[in-house]
TrEMBL record:
This is Uncharacterized protein. The lineage of its organism: Eukaryota, Fungi, Dikarya, Ascomycota, Pezizomycotina. It comes from the Eukaryota. The chain crosses the membrane at residues 159-179. It comes from Tuber aestivum (summer truffle). Gene3D superfamilies: CoaB-like (3.40.50.10300). Keywords: Membrane, Transmembrane, Transmembrane helix.
Length: 363
């Protein structure tokens, strides 16, 4: 066994599986079996950030940034292209369809109004005070009807399976289980890994059982914040690396499937610009190529946090291509109305189809 596969095996044997694992595996099995029988392609789409708890009875945790926008939006475009979608998402992050209303700046009640307000003194059917109907305001009706119809179709045809996770451990156990359930699909299976996955965690043997009390934190000799009132106390968190599971996924859990990962880049620093002459785009390209070399999967989609809604970089063996939203003046830069996922998903599907025509995936 290689070092990396040893650390991955150790991760699974030393961390407890989530209590939901048997139920989620059974749901994934029924979903995959159903769609396999109907010759429908299935995409496993991961979305949202994983957490790293600091205590077993968790009060505090470290989080990974992701609202779930990329994942929830992409899921809708995959559904519109005939794919069945397993949506492995961070609990309470954005969901397909409800995303249009759930996290908007308005409260969802702002979409509604009363209709048929009954005059004073009139009675309702039951003899009590009459209640007006609650309806969607006219200006939202057309768009909501369109979302509602797509949502109902996905539900009636069992095209969308929602499976939540919270911690990085529950994410990894569930990812592995679903990947194994999807093996029967061969290269009809697609993995679209948009979740932001923790790189560091607290191993179980170092995890506190209950909330870490400030009184239990030891004094340190290094200086505390002046005037902070905490004396010399510091909470030092000692994290281990989470093994990279992409290699396992590619080589063992889903060897025939098409695998697409995302790579997030931060804007470059002034230091980088002055001393290396690199730009955020060139650093992103380098990181995407490194990921492709290391894991030998099919496609890495690079995105920079500040511009991720307007442009992404498709990197595959031997080529790199920007996918950008056009503006009304023909330049790139983005438009509020067109979602970049409406360009990303068809580009991914085009590559999946090419792979299907070419036979089994070549890693
Ligand atoms: O939801 P939004 O707010 O719209 O944000 C979307 C996004 C910016 C989070 C998304 O588009 C994105 O970039 N997701 C990937 C972020 C990420 O985890 O990058 P990474 O460099 O940490 O990991 C790269 C790949 O390695 C990922 O596909 C991940 O699945 C994999 N990985 C990561 C950690 C780990 N321990 N094992 C892994 O296999």
């Amino acid at each position: 066994m290689t070092d990396s596969s040893t650390s991955e095996s150790h991760y699974f044997s030393s961390n407890p599986p989530p209590a939901t694992l048997p139920q989620h595996t059974a749901q994934a099995n029924a979903f995959v079996t159903h769609h396999h029988a109907h010759s429908r392609r299935v995409v496993l789409l991961t979305s949202g950030g994983t957490t790293v708890p600091l205590e077993n009875q968790t009060v505090r945790f470290i989080d990974n940034f992701s609202a779930g926008t990329r994942g929830a939006t992409s899921a809708e475009y995959f559904l519109s292209q005939g794919y069945a979608v397993i949506f492995l998402h961070r609990q309470f992050s954005l969901l397909p369809f409800s995303r249009h209303y759930s996290h908007s700046t308005n409260c969802f009640l702002d979409f509604l109004s009363e209709w048929g307000r009954i005059g004073e003194g009139e009675e309702g059917e039951d003899g009590g005070a009459a209640t007006p109907d609650v309806v969607v305001k006219a200006k939202y009706r057309r768009e909501m009807l369109s979302v509602l119809r797509k949502y109902r179709k996905a539900k009636e045809q069992r095209l969308l399976l929602l499976l939540p996770f919270t911690t990085v451990t529950s994410y990894l156990f569930t990812l592995r289980a679903i990947a194994c359930e999807m093996r029967c699909l061969g290269n009809e299976a697609l993995f679209y890994l948009a979740a932001a996955v923790s790189d560091f965690f607290v191993p179980p043997d170092r995890m506190a059982e209950h909330k870490i009390q400030s009184g239990d934190v030891p004094e340190t000799t290094s200086s505390a914040i002046p005037g902070g009132g905490g004396g010399g106390k510091k909470l030092v968190v000692d994290l281990d690396p989470v093994p990279k599971f992409l290699k396992r996924l590619v080589e063992q859990w889903a060897p025939e499937a098409m695998i697409v990962s995302f790579k997030a880049g931060a804007p470059f620093s002034l230091y980088t610009m002055l001393f290396t002459l690199e730009t955020d785009s060139s650093i992103l390209l380098k990181k995407c190529n490194q990921s492709l070399d290391r894991y030998a999967h099919h496609l890495v989609i690079g995105n920079i946090l500040a511009t991720r809604k307007y442009e992404v970089l498709f990197v595959e063996e031997g080529s790199a291509q920007w996918v950008r939203l056009p503006t009304s003046d023909g330049n790139s830069g983005g438009s509020e109305e067109v979602e970049i996922e409406s360009l990303i998903v068809p580009e991914v599907i085009k590559r999946h189809e090419k792979m299907l025509l070419g036979g089994a995936a070549a890693h």
